[in-house]
């Protein structure tokens, strides 16, 4: 997918996203070079991997309304709502947590509503079974979205994975190791497929559970027919799970911001960067290695 004219296409991206060197003594003293792949600058409202995953799905939707799924602080829900506003498409967000219905909206969901997204809350047990055909059909009927194009949670499906392959292709010749934070695994699946031989992708899951490897492989098989590229996961840096942070992580993020003048999003990007610093200190990368960190988001609001 190529860049389009921003005057005629409100989803026109800035591609390739900028690649910046971050001089950091925690890497430098170990003979490592750190680069930042600024995917947070791809689009002002569909930030980073959200554009890469949503744009192919919007194209596949062919002008139909969109329905998707997410938690109360989902950046994917915000991006889908923003895309709907920009393109004049109706959007529905199925939100995990029936207890949230009727309460004042948090800033993330309030942004979705302001962008025109209709919010439909479901209980957590039902949400866990949303992939089952009967459960999904019931949810969509209740949400009035049975005729909408379904974008899965996190935007991760075969179309999204193929869209994220360009991320790896943009990094050809720039890094031996490319790290990305992982939620549903779609970005890692596409990134790894796009990297050239000799480079590898490293995923830092932000959820605990150790289940993501099977999901990433399944996404690659759906997109490409088989596992593709060299990739691995390190499950140690989730800081308690999705949307969980700690004072130590916040202090790390503030320090990184001061060192590199980079706004650090806490739920994904901070955990990935923390993981890379920890791995560098453990000697996980050979001297002379160029490590690239994919910056997939910006702080909200």
CATH class of the largest domain: Alpha Beta
Would you tell me the structural class of the helices and strands?
Answer: alpha/beta
| Helix and strand pattern | EHEHEHEHEHHEHEHEHEHHE
State the shape.
globular
Helical content class: 25-40%
- What fraction of the residues are assigned to beta strands by DSSP? 15-25%
CATH topology type of the largest domain: Rossmann fold
Keywords:
15% strand, 6-stranded mixed beta sheet, Rossmann fold, 4-stranded parallel beta sheet, 2 domains, single chain, 11 helices, 301 residues, alpha/beta, 39% helix
Overview of this protein structure:
- There is one protein chain.
- The protein is an alpha/beta fold.
- The protein is globular, with a radius of gyration of 19 Å.
- The protein has two domains: 19-44 and 158-294, Rossmann fold (3-Layer(aba) Sandwich); 65-147, Rossmann fold (3-Layer(aba) Sandwich), CATH 3.40.50.
- The protein has helices at residues 25-28, 49-61, 75-87, 107-114, 124-128, 133-143, 158-170, 186-194, 212-224, 247-260, 269-281; strands at residues 19-21, 33-37, 66-70, 91-96, 118-122, 149-150, 177-182, 200-205, 231-233, 290-294.
- The model has no long low-confidence stretch (mean pLDDT 95).
- Helix 3 packs parallel to helix 4 (107-114) and helix 7 (158-170) packs across helix 9 (212-224).
């Amino acid at each position: 997918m190529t860049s389009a004219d921003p005057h005629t296409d409100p989803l026109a991206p800035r591609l390739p996203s900028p690649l910046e060197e971050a001089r950091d003594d925690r890497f430098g003293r170990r003979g490592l070079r750190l680069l930042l792949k600024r995917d947070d600058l791809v689009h002002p409202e569909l930030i980073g991997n959200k554009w890469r995953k949503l744009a192919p799905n919007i194209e596949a939707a062919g002008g139909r309304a969109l329905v998707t799924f997410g938690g109360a602080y989902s950046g994917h829900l915000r991006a889908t709502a923003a895309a709907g506003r920009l393109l004049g498409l109706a959007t529905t967000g199925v939100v995990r947590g029936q207890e949230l219905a009727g309460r004042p909206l948090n800033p993330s969901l309030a942004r979705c509503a302001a962008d025109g997204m209709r919010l439909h809350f479901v209980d957590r047990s039902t949400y866990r079974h949303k992939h089952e055909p009967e459960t999904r059909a019931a949810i969509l009927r209740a949400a009035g979205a049975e005729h909408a194009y379904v974008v899965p949670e996190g935007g991760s499906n075969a179309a999204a994975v193929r869209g994220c392959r360009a991320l790896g292709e943009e990094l050809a010749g720039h890094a031996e190791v490319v790290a990305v934070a992982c939620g549903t695994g779609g970005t890692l699946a596409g990134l790894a497929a796009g990297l050239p031989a000799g480079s590898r992708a490293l995923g830092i899951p932000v959820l605990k559970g150790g289940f993501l490897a099977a999901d990433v492989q399944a996404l690659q098989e759906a997109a490409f027919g088989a596992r593709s590229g060299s990739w691995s996961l390190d499950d140690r840096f989730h800081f308690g799970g999705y949307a969980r942070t700690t004072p130590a992580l916040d202090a790390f993020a503030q320090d990184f911001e001061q060192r590199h003048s980079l706004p650090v999003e806490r739920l994904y990007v901070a955990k990935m960067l923390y993981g890379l610093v920890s791995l560098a200190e453990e000697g996980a990368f050979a001297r002379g290695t160029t490590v690239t960190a994919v910056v997939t988001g910006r702080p909200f609001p």
